[in-house]
Design brief:
It is a single chain. With 188 residues, this protein is mainly α. It has 7 helices and no strands. The chain is extended, with a radius of gyration of 24 Å.
């Protein structure tokens, strides 16, 4: 396995360069980045929906609830098409979903902290995490454009860090390969 990675060290470096480029573009053109992400998600939803429709049709006689797969597939296709036709609304709905998830998670974290206060020390940290989740969700709902920008910046920062790590790994693998070549005796 290591031999495969060391021989293709250049692919790691190339992946790292592409990740860094994507990360930088996310900072330079955040609106284009969100549109591209929505379109990628739309393509995924469309393909997933088509496969679910096919699975529903194939399981018609064998599975009692085959129609659930069919409905899931149809909804996936509709969501995918909507992502292509109106990507701005799709991004907004996605942010609303993230905001709702953050608020619900925060409420559960606070409830867990209250229940755990007699069993553990520093349960207030869990409650504080819950408050932070709720505030994050509310901030996304109040200003979804700023939330979208923050998500893009997080993705961009992640891509840059990931890219740097891949390049470092690729160069390390290259050095291992070079070192192994020097250690291998040559046939005379």
């Amino acid at each position: 396995m290591l031999a495969i990675y060391t021989e293709s060290w250049w692919a790691m470096v190339l992946r790292g360069i592409v990740a860094i480029a994507f990360g930088l573009l996310a900072f330079i053109w955040p609106h284009i980045t969100i549109t591209v992400l929505v379109l990628f998600w739309g393509a995924y939803a469309l393909v997933d929906g088509i496969f679910a429709i096919a699975a529903g049709i194939r399981s018609h006689g064998e599975y009692k609830r085959w129609w659930l797969l069919l409905v899931e597939g149809i909804l996936g296709v509709i969501a995918g098409v909507l992502a292509f036709v109106i990507p701005g609304i799709t991004a907004l709905i996605l942010l609303i979903l993230i905001a709702s998830w953050a608020i619900v998670t925060g409420v559960f974290e606070i409830a867990a902290a209250i229940q755990l206060r007699k069993q553990i020390h520093n349960e207030w940290l869990l409650a504080l995490a819950g408050v932070a989740s709720i505030l994050f969700g509310i901030a996304l709902l109040v200003n979804p454009l700023a939330g979208a920008l923050a998500v893009i910046w997080l993705i961009g920062a992640y891509a840059i860090v990931f890219g740097v790590l891949l390049i470092a790994l690729g160069l390390r693998l290259h050095n291992m390969l070079r070192h192994a070549d020097r250690m291998t005796p040559r046939a005379v």
